[in-house]
Amino acid sequence: MTSAPPGPVSAGSDTVLRAMTDDGAFRVITTRTTETVRGATVAQGATGTTARMFGELLTGAILYRETMAPQLRVQGVLRGSHGTGSLVADSHPSGRTRGLVQVDRGKEIDLGEGAVIQMMRTMPGGRINRGVVEVPGGGGISRAIMEYMQTSEQVVSMIAVATVLGEDGIAAAAGGYMVQLLPEIGRGPLMVMTERLRDFESIEERVLAPTFTPERLLDELLDGMPFTRLEESNVGFDCWCDELRVVSALATLSRGDIQNLLSDGEVLEIDCAYCKREFRIAPARLQGLLEQS
Questions:
Q1: Model confidence pLDDT, tens digit, residues 206-232
Q2: How far apart are CA 289 and CA 283, in angstroms?
């Protein structure tokens, strides 16, 4: 039993912009993810430092997918040290983005020694390509993704992601960029970009500015460097759960498990872990699965 892949996310204020310098030295991706992060953090009930890290992981997963696998589904997983929980960012090529916060209420993820970040790409046919690296000490999500890109993908990149929370604890602004060094890079452009990016290590003030857009950030990063815009696409918080997917998952259960679900004769209520949407599966639907198994 299968269901159709999710369609493109509806047009909104969150976008991803891709460009390349005309000399072939740099590929640059910039993004605004405010509404995406806000929707995902509210759905997961994330607050404080957890909400900020969760938002930055969501933005990082979008940038990673746009750089390494635009047509593939990408998941980023941050696992804290000492069993302090995990965060999951799920970025679909349609632009739909969702995530999971698996942290005990009132606690925060520890990014100390032993914390790791894992990136996964779902390949055609269902095979999963994955890699994992340890989170560098004191570097946060930006440094963690940079370390992953260099260590696991052998791609030298400069990355900064930011989520700024408002007084209400909800994301007020979010966004980021990735500057990827390409094989054609010369010493001159590299020196110029290295010096320039010192001013872009932290971008909280930039994403919080009322004038912030991916276009503006791109122009600032590549000021004075001829470049070509390649593509712009929408992103947004949107889950691709539906009843057919829920029933398909139930169909993988054993006959005994399905019979247990049918034993009380009541409607089965299941919440989507990502968006909290509730699905009500009638006993007759479960009985149909039992007869097919």
A1: 999 999 999 999 999 999 999 999 999
A2: 10
DSSP-assigned letters across all residues of 160-212:
EEEEEE-TTSSEEEEEEEEEEEPTT--HHHHHHHHHHGGGGS--HHHHHSTT-
Report the first-to-last Cα separation within the chain, whole angstroms.
12
Q: pTM for the full model?
A: 0.90
Among the listed residues 258, 266, 172, 246, the one whose alpha carbon sits nearest the alpha carbon of residue 212: 172
Q: Using alpha carbons, list the distances in angstroms from residue 167 to 57, 132, 164.
A: 21, 35, 10
User: What residues form DSSP beta bridges with 90?
Assistant: 75, 98
Q: What is the 3-state secondary structure (H, E, C) of 245-267?
A: HHHHHHCCCCHHHHHHHHCCCCC
Backbone angles phi, psi at 145, to 5 degrees: -70, -35
DSSP one-letter code for 158: E
Q: How far is CA 151 from the centre of its chain?
A: 20
What the block records as the tokens of 38 is 């806000």
* Per-residue model confidence (pLDDT) at position 133: 95
Q: What pLDDT is attached to residue 169? A: 85
